[in-house]
């Protein structure tokens, strides 16, 4: 017995025809926008690159000066963010952390928590149970994976604690020329966090009951990245299982 | 648990911020499809899609923080397409009143196969909200809830628009009711 709905069939055929018809539509607007940007911002980029080199040199000096004799990483003590309020999440096994009231929860499942902030449009915060790093098999040592990833430049790495678990706190920026690519992939088969998020990021990696976790706050420009940093540290400081 | 209402699945890249360039590259062509089926003109469709993109770009800092930037864009485009059709009809009436002559229909070659072209032509003859609901539902394969969100109406209202549209389209296109096909076959 046929269960085909003639209207649905006709509508779907009409929709498919439209998609085929627009396949050749010119994308001039996009091309212009994308070409325009480097020209407009060349001066800024050169200045930013020079500043970045200076920061890296200074960071290297500071890191070397403050090295922990045990394993080479300085310690970092995340601080709660003033005015933040509790957010009870679905993230397994039941995570609570403090975030500003401007938050808007985009995803909240056992595998991932994704939050935006109305006053920081091009930024966001993610907490994730990690299934794999950059779609490679497993996530047995996230700190090592991140530290050895040639797509990112590790500005700093330090010891910290999240939810009572030993963690490594990274500040990373994308390596030159890197614009996109899979990064942390969550439990539950959803898409991996895209590298576009890494205009600059603060990343905590840690384990709980044998499972790897990551807490990432990222933004698309340096001002917002800086503004995100205390927020991410606040979330790390107030994380409870 | 869960002090705040979690949203449905979205690509993670949007959740942590997306450049307008990426958004444009992903959304522009499907948007032309929407404005095409609602306006009936390929040339206008591209202009309308660009206009919607420009409006979104101007408010990008606010739009990108929304739960669904895509929904905002589609709603803007659908409203622009409706305005364009209204303007065209008004212009036609004005010409008819002043000159006594009807405005010739556009002479663009159809870009779709005749059957599909006829389907969308009938969609455009529906009341504006019904046409928008059908376009969103079938062009983007949106669930009813998402159609409602994009149109800024309740799920019940969206269902009602879709039901009425479907009844009309089934009649004017001469399509058999789903049950009728099975009965004829048996």
Briefly, what is this?
The complex is a heterodimer of chains A (241) and B (186). In chain A, 32% of the residues lie in helices and 32% in strands. With 241 residues, chain A is an alpha+beta fold.
Which helices and strands appear, and what pairs or packs with what?
The complex is a heterodimer of chains A (241) and B (186).
Chain A: H1 6-21, H2 28-40, H3 42-65, E1 85-88, E2 96-99, E3 103-108, E4 112-117, E5 120-133, H4 142-147, E6 152-162, E7 165-174, E8 184-186, E9 200-208, E10 211-219, H5 222-238
Antiparallel strand pairs in A: 1-2, 3-4, 4-5, 5-8, 5-10, 6-7, 7-9, 9-10
Chain B: H1 12-15, H2 20-39, H3 42-58, H4 60-63, H5 69-99, H6 114-125, H7 128-139, H8 144-151, H9 155-172, H10 178-185
Describe the overall structure.
The complex is a heterodimer of chains A (241) and B (186). With 241 residues, chain A is an alpha+beta fold. Helix content of chain A is 32%, strand content 32%. Chain A has 5 helices and 10 strands. In chain A, strands 3, 4, 5, 6, 7, 8, 9 and 10 form an 8-stranded antiparallel β-sheet that branches. In chain A, strands 1-2 form a two-stranded antiparallel ribbon. Mean pLDDT of chain A is 81; it is low at 30-39. Chain B has 186 residues and is mainly α. In chain B, helix 2 packs antiparallel against helix 3, helix 5 crosses helix 8 (144-151) and helix 7 (128-139) packs across helix 8. Chain B is globular and about 45 Å long. Chain B starts with 11 loop residues before the first helix and ends with a helix. The model of chain B is unreliable at 1-15 (pLDDT under 50). The chains are: A alpha+beta (241), B mainly alpha (186). Chains A and B meet through helix 1, helix 2, strand 1, strand 3 and strand 4 of A and helix 1, helix 2, helix 3, helix 4 and helix 6 of B.
Q: Which key terms come to mind for this protein?
A:
heterodimer; A: 241 residues; alpha+beta; eight-stranded antiparallel β-sheet; two-stranded antiparallel ribbon; 5 helices; 32% strand; B: 186 residues; mainly alpha
């Amino acid at each position: 017995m046929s269960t085909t709905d003639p209207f649905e069939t006709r509508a779907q055929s009409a929709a498919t025809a439209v998609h085929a018809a627009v396949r050749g539509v010119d994308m001039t607007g996009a091309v212009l926008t994308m070409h325009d940007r480097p020209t407009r911002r060349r001066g800024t980029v050169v200045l930013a690159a020079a500043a970045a080199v200076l920061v890296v040199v200074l960071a290297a000096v500071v890191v070397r000066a403050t090295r922990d004799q045990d394993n080479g990483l300085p310690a970092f003590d995340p601080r709660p963010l003033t005015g933040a309020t509790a957010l009870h999440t679905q993230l397994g096994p039941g995570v609570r952390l403090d975030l500003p009231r401007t938050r808007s929860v985009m995803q909240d499942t056992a595998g991932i928590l994704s939050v935006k902030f109305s006053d920081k449009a091009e930024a966001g915060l993610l907490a994730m149970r990690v299934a794999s790093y950059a779609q490679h098999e497993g996530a047995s040592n996230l700190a090592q994976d991140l530290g050895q990833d040639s797509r990112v430049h590790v500005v700093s790495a330090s010891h910290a604690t999240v939810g009572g678990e030993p963690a490594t706190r990274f500040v990373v920026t994308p390596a030159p020329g890197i614009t996109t690519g899979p990064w942390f992939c969550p439990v539950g088969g959803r898409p991996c966090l895209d590298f576009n998020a890494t205009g600059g990021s603060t990343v905590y990696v840690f384990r709980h009951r044998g499972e790897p976790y990551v807490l990432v706050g990222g933004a698309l420009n340096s001002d917002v990245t800086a503004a995100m940093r205390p927020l991410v540290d606040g979330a790390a400081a107030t994380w409870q299982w | 648990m869960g002090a705040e209402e979690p949203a449905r699945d979205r690509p993670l890249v949007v959740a942590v911020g997306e450049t307008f360039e990426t958004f444009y590259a992903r959304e522009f062509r499907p948007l032309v499809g929407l404005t095409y089926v609602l306006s009936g003109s390929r040339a206008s469709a591209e202009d309308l899609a660009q206009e919607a993109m420009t409006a979104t770009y101007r408010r990008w800092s606010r739009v990108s923080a929304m739960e669904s930037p895509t929904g905002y864009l589609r709603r803007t485009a659908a409203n622009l397409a409706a305005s364009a059709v209204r303007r065209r009809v008004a212009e036609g009436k004005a010409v008819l009143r002043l000159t006594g002559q009807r405005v010739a229909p556009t002479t663009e070659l159809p870009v779709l196969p005749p059957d599909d072209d006829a389907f969308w032509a009938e969609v455009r003859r529906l009341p504006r909200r019904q046409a928008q609901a059908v376009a969103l539902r079938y062009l983007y394969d949106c669930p009813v809830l998402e159609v409602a969100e994009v149109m800024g109406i309740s799920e019940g209202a969206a269902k009602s628009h879709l039901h009425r549209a479907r009844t009309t389209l089934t009649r004017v296109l001469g399509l058999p009711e789903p049950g009728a096909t099975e009965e004829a076959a048996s």
